[in-house]
Specification:
The protein has a single domain, classed as OB fold (Dihydrolipoamide Acetyltransferase, E2P) (Beta Barrel). Helix content is 18%, strand content 46%. The protein has a six-stranded mixed beta sheet. It has a five-stranded mixed beta sheet with strand order 3-6-7-5-4.
Length: 157
């Protein structure tokens, strides 16, 4: 393998993409345990509004975080059930509730830019940066930060 091919491969990474309110987000596939359809949730009394509940994932209790609510976006309609992106973080497993699941895309690290200063503080808290691709932007969601929020909201910090 040529040195140029090795350099190019080292700068590529794969993202699991999903949409929220028409925006395309992604998390590193290495952090994604699985992607599943809507699951019944058990409400957590006194939890933050962004914690939709707990799901039982084959015996594993997972906090479900409504990313749409966390970003300060309008709630999804009652007839639109969210999808679950189950991500592994330093604080454990967390389910990110999203509108739609996208594809796994390979991105070049050279297409990455830091979070723009013009983004709202809510977005800047959870979005690490942006990948500019031919088909549009992919906002890189910080699964660790979302997971930390989920653990804190359920008293597991």
């Amino acid at each position: 393998m040529s040195r140029d091919a090795t350099t190019t491969m080292a700068k590529a990474r794969q993202l699991c993409t999903f949409s929220i309110d028409g925006m395309r987000f992604g998390v590193d596939v290495m952090n994604v345990q699985e992607v599943i359809r809507y699951q019944q949730m058990t409400r957590v009394p006194l939890a933050a509004a962004t914690v939709r509940g707990l799901i039982n994932l084959r015996g594993q209790i997972v906090t479900a975080i409504d990313v749409r609510a966390r970003l300060g976006l309008e709630p999804r309609s009652d007839d639109a059930l969210p999808m679950n992106v189950v991500a592994t973080t330093a604080d454990g497993v967390v389910s990110l509730l999203v509108d739609e699941i996208g594809d796994v895309v390979e991105v070049d690290e050279r297409a990455f830019e830091r979070t723009p200063e013009t983004m709202s503080p809510l977005f800047k808290e959870l979005v690490r940066g942006v990948f500019k691709l031919e088909e549009g932007l992919v906002l890189l969601l910080d699964a660790e930060r979302v997971g930390a929020l989920g653990a804190a909201a359920c008293g597991r910090e």
